[in-house]
Amino acid sequence: MQIKAALLYEANTPFVVEDVTLVEPRKGEVLVRMAASGVCHSDYHLVTGATKHPMPVAIGHEGAGVVEAVGEGVNRVQLGDHVVLNWAPDCGHCFYCLHDKPNLCDTFTEPIWAGVMLDGTTRLYKADGSPVYHYCGLATHAEYAVVPQESVVPVRRDVPFTIAALVGCAVATGVGAAMYTAGVRPGESVVVFGCGGVGLNVLLGAALCGASTIIAVDAHPAKMEIARDFDATHTLMADENTLEAIRELTGGRGADHSFEAVGVPTVQEQAFAAARPGGTVTLVGLSPMGTGTNLPGAVITRQEKVIKGSYYGTVNASRDFPMMLDLYAAGKLKLDKLVSREWRLDQINEAYDAMLSGDVARGVVVF
Q1: pLDDT tens digits for 302-346?
Q2: Which of these, 309, 333, 3, 354, lies nearest to 171 by C-alpha position?
Q3: b/e 87-123 (16+ beta carbons within 10 angstroms → b)
Q4: Whole-angstrom distance between the N-terminal and C-terminal Cα of the chain?
Q5: What is the DSSP track for 71-89?
């Protein structure tokens, strides 16, 4: 079938929306008619070159839609199911899956980063027959997507697709980081560096866990008001006085939990400094490949600070995507304000420009 998809041909160039051929799902695969696809910074890392990937690549990794067709052997979903797509599918039987870390499943790592399906080939092709690679094995910035059945999670039908799509990345990553990776407990203090889509969800997750002091830090003034809508009790502009202000709000010690949701080494170092002795630093933002972060070993030892990486919020997608949407439906997870603006697919470059401006919580491409 012919579909429209947003492609990237090389780093430091705009996205291009054009017609490509999508072939039918094969054994164990699912065809999804996309309804909504989130505008996430991870896709833009392809533009900057911070993330390396085979090209041309069909972008998008945060989406929701309806199952239109299934290949042989599919038993996880049925025609007509509403689904959220999962960019870190799990096999259920590898070492990590069996040790309750399905987000670290290594069965699918190689094909996903190669931009192909499990058989090593793509389902997207240009008119000349050359392959178009699938970002994160999904390629959600397109009218349709063919994905492995392990990448689809059926969810309730009464939630808007624009909300459901965001659970597939920003919500799971941010809420999960607070709830599962860091294990925030009632009454604890939290500081979050970076109030993009993921950082805002860390704020929501911290509030859901019962944190009493929730401090949002960002370099964009517009993010201050947005963060207040996402349960921040205090907002701070990032400057030379930020650390002192954090300590003043946390009894002079620093926060029990410090989250970095940007992926910039200097900000990671600031997040480390903002945690109290014995506190936990959780790195959620995706740093450019090959970069390093300078954290003082002597301080780590003497102050017993704990440093954690958080990949996809340590979630179990099959369990947690439906649970998070249940929390949303019950009014306990405030996701409505997360969708700042909706875009058409042909506005894809405008959508990413808006994301970079810092004036939106999350943009969503709707079909």
Answers
A1: 999 999 999 999 999 999 999 999 999 999 999 998 998 999 999
A2: 333
A3: bbbbbeebeebeeeebbbbebbeebbeebbbbeeebb
A4: 17
A5: -TT--S--TT-EEEE-SS-
Residue 188 scores a pLDDT above 90: yes
C-alpha gyration radius of the chain: 20
CA–CA gap between residue 153 and residue 62 (Å, rounded): 12
3-state secondary structure of 61: coil
Q: What confidence score (pLDDT) does residue 84 get?
A: 98
DSSP conformation class of 122 = -
Mean pLDDT of 143-147: 98
User: How high does pLDDT run on average in the chain?
Assistant: 95
Least confident interval from 24-38, 161-175, 279-293: 279-293
> DSSP label at 165?
H
Name 66's bridge partners.
33, 82
Q: What pTM does this model have?
A: 0.94
What is the pLDDT confidence band of residue 250, given thresholds at 50, 70 and 90? very high
The domain defined by 183-309 folds into Rossmann fold (3.40.50)
Longest Cα–Cα distance in the chain? 65
Beta bridge partners of 147: 30
2-169+314-366: CATH number: 3.90.180.10
In 10 A of CB 310, how many CB atoms?
Answer: 25
Per-residue model confidence (pLDDT) at position 179: 98
Query: Which residues of the chain are in CATH 3.40.50.720 domains?
Result: 183-309
Beta bridge partners of 84: 64, 153
Structure tokens at 31: 């065809």
Q: Which helix (H) or strand (E) holds 223?
A: helix 222-229
Q: Which residues pair with 131 in a beta bridge?
A: 125
